[in-house]
């Protein structure tokens, strides 16, 4: 009998990678010119990359078809994505039944960061990327951000740079690789592969790409609409937490040198003053990243809580004709709700010399108002916890995902019953400035959504808030642990995890304007 090859076991520890991440977080100015070098590159790319987005009627789309019976909008190849109608029934919800347009994109795309040690410090390769829905032009995206239709070149255009590092990881170290959901209110069961791959050899640098430390990226998370949604979701998947004492435990919080490293942005406080670093908050946040510091609930209890809600919650969805949705109408080349709230289905014609193809047209979802996504946080025995909400959305693969404490569009509350008002909305919107640890307007995915922006907030609670029902207090190390698995933490909460990581060195952040909400009824 042929002998089996000899196998051996070895210990697998993430401590070395967490230490690499910590060193990169502390390198807030980068290397070789620091933030000034970054801003010079970004200004050069913004000046050189020619792009134009023009709104057009849905019927003027080129290469897209309208279904003769349902009115659904789909690409002539049958690839990319389609916009369809959906009927939703969630028994017991504040709004138990409704109909809406939704994006159906069954393909799994790749969102991936290449990381590499340069002069002993881990760097991420970011891309200055134009998307037709971006407010304000170029945003920082992951190294690779591509649908399967794009990277298989259905469009007949250019190849996606650096894709080979993610399609074949031999000779590289996979730091993170997990399928994650996207907006469950706008996408139907959408998933993307979130990847971080460490390379060890030389990597040629293309002109639209730049190496940044995690510390630099954390500072840039305080600049409005700069770090895009796909970059934020991948950054959240970093193995930032530790099993033992966290490598940042002895680091002193950085001074208030402003988000973006000197780039002109909104002031840190509404009165124009600088934000002050709170050493106590900083240390409680870093302790929250270490499993040895403990937590209010065990992770087993948190998973059981989610599993129980999933098993008891019914979400019934069925396809519906886009051209016959109740309370929706098509007028002036777009599909809109009769209330003027929620969203519109519209279309754009695009010119973009830096993309795989130089021009195209496509349908998009355009929200009618700016949203809010916020975590309430509190220190429990000196360990920071976030108040997570188990949220139901019709487009989730598995019914319920962990969401921010508050996730809503305040302007749409006028068109909803009083019961739909988020429980902790007033605690977020009325928080005094000294309790607001982070508040920055950040755009959502600009390839499908037109000028979709949420103000992301981290607010320290000023009173004791017990959890229960759909809410639980979690530590950051528990959220990071759940992010190793699919469909536990939603895309808005992942952005807030990345933002919390950015505060681990006390980095100040822009204080963006917060959308107002109607008074309670």
Automatic annotation (TrEMBL):
The record's section on InterPro entries has: EvaA-like, EvaA-like_sf
Protein origin, superkingdom: Bacteria
Describe the location of the dTDP-4-dehydro-6-deoxy-alpha-D-glucopyranose 2,3-dehydratase domain by residue ranges.
Answer: 37-238, 301-500
> What GO molecular functions are on record for this protein?
lyase activity
What Pfam families does the annotation carry? Hexose_dehydrat
Protein name, UniProt field: Oxidase EvaA
Q: Which residue stretches belong to region Disordered? A: 248-277
* Annotated source species: Streptomyces prasinopilosus
